Amino acid sequence: MLRIRNLDAGYGALTVLQGVSLHVDAGEIVAIIGANGAGKSTLLRAISGLVRPQCGRVEFAGRPLCGMAAERIAGLGCLHVPEGRQVFAPMTVRENLLVGGYARPAPRAELDERMDRVFSFFPRLKERRRQTAGTLSGGEQQMLAIGRALMACPSMLMMDEPSMGLAPIAAKSIFEIVARLRSGGLTVLLIEQNARAALRLADRGYVLETGRILLEGAAGDLMANHDVQRAYLGKDYSRIDE
Ligand SMILES: Nc1ncnc2c1ncn2[C@@H]1O[C@H](COP(=O)(O)OP(=O)(O)OP(=O)(O)O)[C@@H](O)[C@H]1O
Ligand SMILES: [Mg+2]
């Protein structure tokens, strides 16, 4: 579904991503793990057209995306749920969802149907549909950010740190949502600081270090990898060495 070859991308003269190649097959959950500043968010921005790639190829559903405007990429069904949610705080839940639908314009009746689907997935958002987004809890705002992307009928969701800043129970419910989305047929590219939770959920993963892919493999293999354990899963090796 998504295929990236030798991607370089960054900001002005700064090249953050260097020679990144990866793919995501239809129906997969693929996790990208990496330290702060590794370039994870830059990677999602380069795919979704918010950052222009310096070189390389990005293909989604067989189409080249490089140079395409962000709204056209979203219109193809490749949707980005950004880091920090970025909901429109003064607008209501309903209004935020309607804005999400603009990426795939449709008559009002169809937008209402899409919203009903989002509400059946997130009953909590239905209860709060008239509340302004800025007054939602962090977990509710994350649901709204996901719901807003679902309004554009994505075939692939790219989620940037959906559990960031959430209490463990809210984070757990977000991971359950990701699993439900996948069982509903969505393909997911997931970026997470919580590498353990991400790899538990994912089919495959990539480790991004200072803009380069250092390791890739089945999620279980990455979890069993000692370097990954030491750097990202917080295993304490001093005790094992004793
Ligand atoms: N708008 C920007 N202008 C200039 N440099 C930027 C910009 N956004 C990010 N960078 C730089 O690009 C590098 C990668 O940042 P990025 O946000 O992609 O990292 P990340 O892996 O998502 O980190 P985190 O885990 O903290 O979210 C960093 O060195 C950062 O300072
Ligand atoms: Mg980031």
Structural overview:
The structure is a single chain. This protein has one domain: Rossmann fold (3-Layer(aba) Sandwich), CATH 3.40.50. The mean pLDDT is 93. The chain is of the alpha/beta class and 242 residues long. It is built from 11 helices and 10 strands. The chain binds adenosine-5'-triphosphate and magnesium ion (MG).
Structure summarized in a few sentences:
With 242 residues, this protein is an alpha/beta fold. It has helices spanning 40-48, 70-75, 93-101, 108-121, 123-127, 138-150, 168-183, 195-201, 219-224, 226-232, 237-241, and strands at residues 2-11, 14-24, 29-33, 53-60, 63-64, 78-81, 156-160, 187-191, 204-209, 212-218.
Features:
242 residues; alpha/beta; Rossmann fold; six-stranded mixed beta sheet; four-stranded antiparallel beta sheet; 11 helices; 10 strands; 40% helix; binds magnesium ion
Topology:
Elements: E1 2-11, E2 14-24, E3 29-33, H1 40-48, E4 53-60, E5 63-64, H2 70-75, E6 78-81, H3 93-101, H4 108-121, H5 123-127, H6 138-150, E7 156-160, H7 168-183, E8 187-191, H8 195-201, E9 204-209, E10 212-218, H9 219-224, H10 226-232, H11 237-241
Parallel strand pairs: 3-8, 3-9, 6-7, 7-8
Antiparallel strand pairs: 1-2, 1-4, 4-5, 9-10
Share in helix: 40-55%
User: Helix-strand pattern, N to C?
Assistant: EEEHEEHEHHHHEHEHEEHHH
Instruction: Provide the domain count.
Output: 1
Number of strands: 10
**Helical region count?**
11
> Could you name the CATH topology?
Rossmann fold
Average pLDDT confidence is 93
**Under the CATH scheme, which architecture would be assigned?**
3-Layer(aba) Sandwich
Specify the CATH homologous superfamily.
P-loop containing nucleotide triphosphate hydrolases
Shape: globular
Note poorly predicted spans. none
The SS-based structural class is alpha/beta
**What would CATH call the class?**
Alpha Beta
Strand order of the largest sheet: 6-7-8-3-9-10
